[in-house]
């Protein structure tokens, strides 16, 4: 047992507190090695190891000396202590020194008479609970911010990082220099990668570090070099290069190098040059700002003269400048009012197909332009906006261009009374405009102008646990002032319309207790009856700014509105009836099974379509091939298809859902879908889906439109993600177009993870539909995508995680 004593020394900073407080830049070994045990490495036990990416963890051992009451007191323990006449002291043999949370171990420690310096030698270990530093020689100036440690190894426990430097020097308060240093996150003895630099400088006060002649080594082979690199050592933002992104595919080589500019505490920017071997240099940029009452972001990209073009073999846009810009700003006026501003534009409709998406998937369908201010009171909600969209499709016909609202003013309110009576007020005034040749679009779409829409509503809802009854009437009053420009027309330039939408919705709820498989349930039986009447009102003089006939569905059984938007109100005289049954698990209240079936009976034909003519029915397809072949039948049938839907949580892992629209008059299916899903607690996912739809099912799309499919649509969709082990994820998808006997998408990939690095390798082949339903302009695209992530350093490659989550429902990728 060594001698032990305590003394209070005038220590300003120890090496541990100053060095490692700034060492969160991440660090680990280079040439020399040190045993895992010496680095405080603790392997996982057999049971723990099965669920861990790493083979173990870094754990600080217990302090060898107890804590003193005064944190400034230095406790010492050594086998031998020699004192000189002038007060010098030499401690030898397993020396331990502790001050507060910091503990130093060494073979020898020399204390001069003035106690201004500590010299330590032999198997030095310095710990403070967050990190470990080991070396052979150390000098600490106790009253100055200076220290030197030679041949050092260091570990950051929580970050799972280790590193090495030939010399570690504290050069001032919070300033450090590491020579011939390296770092990695790999387990001891497994240097799959490391970052090596001849000179690393850390500035703890400023929160950043710099490295000169830095290189990334993989299995001791240099693969990347930075002459100078600046990096953060804490959570503060700092100007400097970020981790690069490197992609390889059948199109060629893709390299992006982001540069981050920390302009001020509330301003920053990222500039990203991106070199694509098949296209050229694309410059991307993003600027962000934050104020007390507002914030915003401006982003964009520019490619001078695209070398590759787009659209399959057509090579569209080859030689063209490709660009986009998107600026957003939002703020608060007061507690009840906010405002938003946005402007987005792109050079063409395929910009994001080619540059902005993951694995060839586009991220945006449109670019918004908006100026909006709103008010949210206790009763009234007000909204004023000017809004438009650039639709990102190519080719884009004039008919498909959306209207701008310049401006649109809305005022809405609700009144609720104790006896169940309620009233509502909805109102909107909008000026519609778009830049098209009015002579090249359908006549009803050629106008621009203003629309005033007033919609008061009154209703009464009687509700009890056993059922409800709700009659409701809406009065739609709409008036226009129109301009047809150079279009010759006999249509009125100031048409109007007034029509009432009346409905009565009712339902009953029956319940019973049920025991199945040893579990208690509540089963419900919920019959429902809904009547809706909308008189036939001529709307042939009205323009078509924002309306489209809705495809039939379960929700449409109970809705009095056959069209979206305001320009069309479909005539309706129908009674819908249906029943739904649910199985609720008493213990959790969770729906285990929900099944519903319903149908509508029509008492009149539906004459109002997108043309708005109240006197005529759609042409027969044999007389006019330009009409939707289903449109006349849908308008004259005396009952809707039977709508059946099912949601079934079979057990904790298996679930299923289905929808079936069956025409009991023609005895044929109009649309159906079935989905089966498997979810395993360990993360395994399997999805199988089937979809079928008759030609022309969507009544709002006419032959010749880009969205019209002149074939029955039948598709199979199989996707899976399987966690083969803690380290390996296998993913795949196959989407098959049964109608045209072709594959729409094939995807196979593997993701490997450990605590040192991650790798993602994905092969994908898909059909690009060129933004149209017809298949004659489709073309195939394919790619092999590779992504690396060096943990503690950053990623190299394209980020595919969000795409996988979209295409494989239920999958949550292990974070790379």
UniProtKB/TrEMBL annotation:
<dbReference type="Pfam" id="PF03968">
    <property type="entry name" value="LptD_N"/>
</dbReference>
<dbReference type="InterPro" id="IPR050218">
    <property type="entry name" value="LptD"/>
</dbReference>
<keyword id="KW-0732">Signal</keyword>
<dbReference type="InterPro" id="IPR007543">
    <property type="entry name" value="LptD_C"/>
</dbReference>
<comment type="function">
    <text>Together with LptE, is involved in the assembly of lipopolysaccharide (LPS) at the surface of the outer membrane.</text>
</comment>
<dbReference type="Pfam" id="PF04453">
    <property type="entry name" value="LptD"/>
</dbReference>
<dbReference type="InterPro" id="IPR020889">
    <property type="entry name" value="LipoPS_assembly_LptD"/>
</dbReference>
<comment type="similarity">
    <text>Belongs to the LptD family.</text>
</comment>
<dbReference type="GO" id="GO:0009279">
    <property type="term" value="C:cell outer membrane"/>
</dbReference>
<protein>
    <recommendedName>
        <fullName>LPS-assembly protein LptD</fullName>
    </recommendedName>
</protein>
<feature type="region of interest" description="Disordered">
    <location>
        <begin position="609"/>
        <end position="638"/>
    </location>
</feature>
<feature type="domain" description="LptD C-terminal">
    <location>
        <begin position="321"/>
        <end position="727"/>
    </location>
</feature>
<dbReference type="InterPro" id="IPR005653">
    <property type="entry name" value="OstA-like_N"/>
</dbReference>
<dbReference type="GO" id="GO:1990351">
    <property type="term" value="C:transporter complex"/>
</dbReference>
<feature type="signal peptide">
    <location>
        <begin position="1"/>
        <end position="29"/>
    </location>
</feature>
<feature type="compositionally biased region" description="Polar residues">
    <location>
        <begin position="625"/>
        <end position="634"/>
    </location>
</feature>
<keyword id="KW-0998">Cell outer membrane</keyword>
<dbReference type="GO" id="GO:0043165">
    <property type="term" value="P:Gram-negative-bacterium-type cell outer membrane assembly"/>
</dbReference>
<feature type="domain" description="Organic solvent tolerance-like N-terminal">
    <location>
        <begin position="85"/>
        <end position="207"/>
    </location>
</feature>
<comment type="subunit">
    <text>Component of the lipopolysaccharide transport and assembly complex. Interacts with LptE and LptA.</text>
</comment>
<dbReference type="GO" id="GO:0015920">
    <property type="term" value="P:lipopolysaccharide transport"/>
</dbReference>
<keyword id="KW-0472">Membrane</keyword>
């Amino acid at each position: 047992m060594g001698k032990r004593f305590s003394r209070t020394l005038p220590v300003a900073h120890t090496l541990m507190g100053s060095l490692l407080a700034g060492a969160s830049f991440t660090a680990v070994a280079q040439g020399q090695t040190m045993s895992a045990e010496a680095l405080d490495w603790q392997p996982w036990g057999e049971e723990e190891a099965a669920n861990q990416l790493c083979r173990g963890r870094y754990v600080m051992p217990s302090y060898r000396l107890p804590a003193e009451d005064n944190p400034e007191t230095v406790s010492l323990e050594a086998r031998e202590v020699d004192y000189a006449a002038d007060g010098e002291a030499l401690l030898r043999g397993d020396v331990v020194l502790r001050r507060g949370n910091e503990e130093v171990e060494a073979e020898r420690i020399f204390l001069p008479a003035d106690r201004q310096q500590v010299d330590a030698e032999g198997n030095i270990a310095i710990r403070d609970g967050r990190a470990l530093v080991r070396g052979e020689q150390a000098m600490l100036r106790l009253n100055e911010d200076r220290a030197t440690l030679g041949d050092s190894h260091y570990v950051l426990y929580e970050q799972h990082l280790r590193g090495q430097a030939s010399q570690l020097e504290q050069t001032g308060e919070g300033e450090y220099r590491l020579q011939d240093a390296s770092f990695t996150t790999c387990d001891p003895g497994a240097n799959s990668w490391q970052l090596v630099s001849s000179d690393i400088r850390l500035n703890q006060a400023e929160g950043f570090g710099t490295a000169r002649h830095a290189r990334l080594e993989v299995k001791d082979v240099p693969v990347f070099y930075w002459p100078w690199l600046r990096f953060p050592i804490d959570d503060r933002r700092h100007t400097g290069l970020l981790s690069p992104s490197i992609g390889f595919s059948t199109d060629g080589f893709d390299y992006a190098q982001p540069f981050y500019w920390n302009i001020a505490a509330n301003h920053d920017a990222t500039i990203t040059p991106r070199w694509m071997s098949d296209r050229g240099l694309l410059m991307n940029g993003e600027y962000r700002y934050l104020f007390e009452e507002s914030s915003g972001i401006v982003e964009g990209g520019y490619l001078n003269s695209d070398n590759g073009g787009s659209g399959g073999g057509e090579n569209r846009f080859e030689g063209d400048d490709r660009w986009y810009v998107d600026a957003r700003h939002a703020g608060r006026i007061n507690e009840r009012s906010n405002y938003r501003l946005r402007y987005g534009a792109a050079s063409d409709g395929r910009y994001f197909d080619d540059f902005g998406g993951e694995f060839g998937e586009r991220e945006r369908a449109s670019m918004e332009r908006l100026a909006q201010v709103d008010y949210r009171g206790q009763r009234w909600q007000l909204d004023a906006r000017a809004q438009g969209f650039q639709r990102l499709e190519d080719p884009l016909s004039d008919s498909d261009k959306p209207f701008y609202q310049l401006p649109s003013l809305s005022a809405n309110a609700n009144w609720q009374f104790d006896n169940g009576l309620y009233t509502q007020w909805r109102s909107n005034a909008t000026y519609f405009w778009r830049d098209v040749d009015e002579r090249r679009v359908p006549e009803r779409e050629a106008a621009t102008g203003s629309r005033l829409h007033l919609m008061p509503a009154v209703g009464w809802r009687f509700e009890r646990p056993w059922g409800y009854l709700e009659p409701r009437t809406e009065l739609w009053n709409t008036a226009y002032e129109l301009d047809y420009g150079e279009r010759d027309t006999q249509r009125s330039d100031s048409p109007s319309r007034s029509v009432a939408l009346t409905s009565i919705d009712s339902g009953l709820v029956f319940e019973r207790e049920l025991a199945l498989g040893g579990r208690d349930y509540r089963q419900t039986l919920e019959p429902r009856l809904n009547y809706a009447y909308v008189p036939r009102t001529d709307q042939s003089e009205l323009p078509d700014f924002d309306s489209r006939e809705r495809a039939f569905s379960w929700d449409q059984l109970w809705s009095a509105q056959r069209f979206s938007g305001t320009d069309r109100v479909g005539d309706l005289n129908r009674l819908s009836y249906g029943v739904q049954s649910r199985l609720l698990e008493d213990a959790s209240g969770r729906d285990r099974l929900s099944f519903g079936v319903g149908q509508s009976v029509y008492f009149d034909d539906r004459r109002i379509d997108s043309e708005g003519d109240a006197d005529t029915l759609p042409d027969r397809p044999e007389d006019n091939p330009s009409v939707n072949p289903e449109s006349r039948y849908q308008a004259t049938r005396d009952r809707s298809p039977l709508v059946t839907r099912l949601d079934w949580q079979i057990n904790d892992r298996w679930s299923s859902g289905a929808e079936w629209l069956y025409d009991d008059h023609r005895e044929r299916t109009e649309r159906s879908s079935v989905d089966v899903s498997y979810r395993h607690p360990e993360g395994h996912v399997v999805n199988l889906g089937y979809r079928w739809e008759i030609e022309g099912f969507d009544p709002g799309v006419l032959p010749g439109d880009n969205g019209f499919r002149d074939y029955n649509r039948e598709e199979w969709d199989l996707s899976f993600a399987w966690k083969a082990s803690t380290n390996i994820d296998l993913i795949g998808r196959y989407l098959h177009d049964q109608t045209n006997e072709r594959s729409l998408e094939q995807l196979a990939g593997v993701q490997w993870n450990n605590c040192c690095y991650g790798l993602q390798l994905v092969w994908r082949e898909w059909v690009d539909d060129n933004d149209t339903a017809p298949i004659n302009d489709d073309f195939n695209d394919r790619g092999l995508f590779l992504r690396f992530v060096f943990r503690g350093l950053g990623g190299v490659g394209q980020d595919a995680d969000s795409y996988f989550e979209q295409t494989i429902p239920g999958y949550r990728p292990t974070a790379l």
